Amino acid sequence: MLRIHFSAADVLGLRVSVAPDPLWELLLSVHAAQTVGISGALRAWRTAVRGKLAPSAALLWPLARPLGYSPDFLTPTAGEADFETGLDQLLATSRTSLRADLSLLATQTRPTAWTTDLADGRREALHRLRDALKAYHAAAIDPFWDVIRRMAGADRERRAATAIGEGAGAMLTALHPDIRWDGGVLEVGYPVDQDVHLEGRGLTLVPSFFCGPRPITLLRQNERPVLVYPVDREFDALAIGGSTRLSRSLAALLGRTRAQILHAIATDAPVTTSDLARSVGISVAGISQHTSVLRNAGLITTVRDHGFALHHVSPRGEVLLSG
Predict the structure, then answer these.
(1) pLDDT digits (tens, 9 = 90+) for 72-88
(2) For residue range 189-210, what is the model confidence (pLDDT) as tens digits?
(3) Minimal CB count within 10 Å: which of 103, 126, 193, 319?
């Protein structure tokens, strides 16, 4: 049983992530790829990516078994960062944390020469991890990201409506059938006994397509405790997810997130920073950083109207979008 202990301040600090988290989705999809007997949308996803994974994906299997412990350092973010930013944070993990996480993993599964080198913080091992994560993300997560983000966004709206209409307790208990809330402790059906004391830090709930069959959290919480929970999966939407992609060349030039932002501005202009945050699925602060880069590159223009920043695609940006 997982028990999450709340104070009154923690209830006030409860939030639902604005978007699914790319690194949590990657980790949990590695679980799904190795799980026997999955069905529905997860099975459709696994069928779609079968044969498309690079050989380096095999490096990830011993790091993220579907049962047992997965190293905390693989998921340093909680829905507030894009894949590239999260990967940078992952690769900056201290040698102390790497060794602690991988030593615990070694009590459950036989270490390989590579995981031993990784635990020692060897540069070559970290580079292999980086390359494996990038290749896996490109094949298994990125083609479906628009659909995953849409499902998570719809789920977030439902949670918000429940919280507003019925209170935080009702929202928490509606997350999963194996959750109980007594006003101070959230109990979650879990394969091991674990207590998390929030101690004023609040809790971030992160919706996840690949999470299952129950919510999951970190063994050692950082300054932002997190609970990842499964959303309702839409089989048909996932099956066609790969058809709603941005141009690979544009994403390669700008980075996927900035390409999404440029496309969203072109589609809905004039569009506010807050609207972009909801559309793209990252924080307002993150949107501000990306739009600043796009504006400095001459791809968008921004005007202020009654306190709102309104973004438009510039002629140069239109040329870039048209290919």
Answers:
(1) 999 998 877 899 999 99
(2) 998 999 999 999 999 999 999 9
(3) 193
How many whole angstroms separate alpha carbon 82 and alpha carbon 79? 8
Predicted TM-score (pTM) above 0.90? no
Domain 246-321 has CATH 3.30.530.20: no
CA-CA distances (angstroms) from residue 14 to 22, 68, 89, 165, 247? 21, 27, 24, 16, 37
What does the domain layout of the chain look like in residue ranges? Answer: 2-17+147-232, 22-146, 246-321
Amino acid at site 74 = L
Measured CA to CA, the distance from residue 280 to residue 22 in angstroms comes to 13
Give helix 123-136 / helix 22-34 axis angle, nearest 10°: 80
Cα–Cα nearest to 207, from 151, 144, 160: 151
Tokens 């609970």 correspond to what residue? 227
| Bond from prior residue into 270 cis (ω within 30 degrees of 0) | yes
Q: Are 202 and 13 in contact (CB under 8 A)?
A: yes
